[in-house]
């Protein structure tokens, strides 16, 4: 259970960073 929770948290944390980066990169494109 511990390793599953750790993997899930890692995946959630990585996905969160990717979504933040995508949103940050997409905003300037929308302005154009």
UniProtKB/TrEMBL annotation:
InterPro entries: Pyridox_Oxase_Alr4036_FMN-bd, Split_barrel_FMN-bd. Pfam families: Pyridox_oxase_2 (PF12766). It comes from the Eukaryota. Residues 1-21 form the Pyridoxamine 5'-phosphate oxidase Alr4036 family FMN-binding domain. One of its GO terms (molecular function) is FMN binding. This is Pyridoxamine 5'-phosphate oxidase Alr4036 family FMN-binding domain-containing protein. The lineage of its organism: Eukaryota, Viridiplantae, Streptophyta, Embryophyta, Tracheophyta.
């Amino acid at each position: 259970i511990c390793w599953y929770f750790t993997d899930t948290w890692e995946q959630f944390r990585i996905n969160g960073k990717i979504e933040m980066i995508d949103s940050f990169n997409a905003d300037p494109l929308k302005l154009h």
